Amino acid sequence: MKVLYNDNHLAVVEKLPGEIVQGDKTGDPTLIDAVKDWIKKEYNRPGNVFCGLVHRLDRPVGGLVVFARTSKALARLNDMFRNRQVNKRYWAIVRNRPPKNADTLTGYITTVERTNKSYISDKPKPGAKEAVLSYKLIGESDRYFLLEVDLMTGRKHQIRAQLASIGCPVKGDLKYGDKRSNPDGSISLRAQHVDFIHPVSGKEISIDAPIPDDPLWQALAASATQKEKE
Fold it and tell me: Is the pLDDT confidence value at 78 over 90?
């Protein structure tokens, strides 16, 4: 586990694909427990320590997760996430070039709990929630394309479902239509950047996740850097 930011009130860590943020029916070790253990060892604290969960990432997704280390920070961060005062940017690798180099996608999302899958429709329907995101093409290789995604709403599997709806399922995401799985069971979607105003100190926090030590991620990140310079 990589701790990318830490102070008395919050911690930002990198979640690896395959890790679960909090407990589920599998009983597998959780990221929140790993953070608690780290705090105990780092500060030599016996007994239980406080660690509040503010948001989640799907199990096959990697990237940044913010945890609150005090109840004050937890309450304020919850309000900030609810009011869209925390800016998160995701990176997604897709096999198909998107219809446009940049666009805003608006649809209505319905989740079927039995299959743990979300569906996008163009028009409102009973039980559906509005889903809005914007994306832009920031890097590419001979076979793959790197998209930067900003969420305006936070719905279950929103990025995965909406990118699939335009013919661009995330690489490795069999659930949403990709042809092949990734060898490690991950999908090529990452919470790559987060910035917000610290809920207690008021200072600006801006954090980028490390680029995975994977040739494709490294190549597409280099392509994105090159495009930014042009």
Answer: yes
